[in-house]
Amino acid sequence: MLLFDYNAEPAGVSHLLESGTEVNVAPDAFVQSPAHLAAHGGHAFFLLWQQQTGANLNQQDWLGEAPIHKAAKVGSLECLALLVASRVSIDLRNNNGKTAEDLAWDFGFLECAQFLVAVKNGQKRENVTQFTCVQRDKDEDLLTDAARQKRTCENKRSTSQKRMKPNGMLTQVLFT
């Protein structure tokens, strides 16, 4: 395949462009897209190019692996960071039920595994924060509505008060 000839020089990329390689088409029987191969080769530059040309970075191959799995298997922290920044799903599981984090641990790439753990924990915190903010907004809306209703009720009630006139006489004033 042409991707194996890829190098970081502009001539390597232009060779792929001239050959008409499509970004989401898997040219072999194992359903390996150019993005899969770039991630497996640790070629973040080519992976970025794939992302910018519209490649599906969550596309799974015959093993159920997406480019994030391939990058984790070879310990390419640069490719993992690019994929995470591209908002790929880090929870995708391959046919064996393994995530990219699991594969990084299995293959001994501790830095990659720790990076994926940190990203996962950050996403959980972000989701909790978003939920809390939405819930807080709803609670504030309810409190605002309750306060508005209370003011309306207070304004509708007629009240009677006694007031002192300047001449010293008491009068009763009815407010509605």
Structure, explained:
By secondary structure, the protein is mainly α. It has a domain at 2-120: Serine Threonine Protein Phosphatase 5, Tetratricopeptide repeat (Alpha Horseshoe). It is 56% helix and 7% strand. It has helices spanning 10-19, 34-41, 44-52, 67-74, 77-85, 100-106, 110-156; strands at residues 159-164, 170-175. Strands 1-2 form a two-stranded antiparallel sheet. α2 (34-41) runs antiparallel to α3 (44-52). The model is unreliable at 1-10 (pLDDT under 50). ANK repeats lie at residues 63-95. It comes from Anolis carolinensis. This is Ankyrin repeat domain 37. Keywords: ANK repeat, Repeat.
Number of strands: 2
The string of secondary-structure elements, in order, is: HHHHHHHEE
Helix content: 55-70%
Q: Overall mean pLDDT score?
A: 76
Which architecture of the domain at 2-120 per CATH? Answer: Alpha Horseshoe
How would you sum up the major sheet?
2 strands, antiparallel
